[in-house]
UniProtKB/TrEMBL annotation:
Top-level taxon of origin: Bacteria
Protein name: Uncharacterized protein
């Protein structure tokens, strides 16, 4: 089985029937995408900071440039 067929089988295995199901499957993708995108531009951001922004809307014990957090918040929106 080729890579394409494996990808199709994986997504079919999720049994997505609604927009909510798709949202659930892509939830961590959004965080990972925002983290890696932000990391390219700014080495101060961490995965945990990005996850806190997406899940809680705030970050604990961040000592870097506040602009970094605003950029990640914009990714969320």
């Amino acid at each position: 089985m080729g890579a394409y067929e494996q990808a199709i089988a994986l997504w079919r295995g999720y049994g997505i029937q609604s927009a909510a199901d798709l949202d659930r499957c892509l939830d961590s993708f959004r965080i990972l995408f925002a983290y890696h995108s932000g990391r390219i531009e700014n080495a101060e951001i961490t995965y945990h900071d990005t996850r806190d922004i997406f899940e809680n809307g705030k970050v604990h014990q961040f000592t870097g440039n506040p602009r970094t957090l605003f950029e990640q918040q914009n990714q969320k929106q």
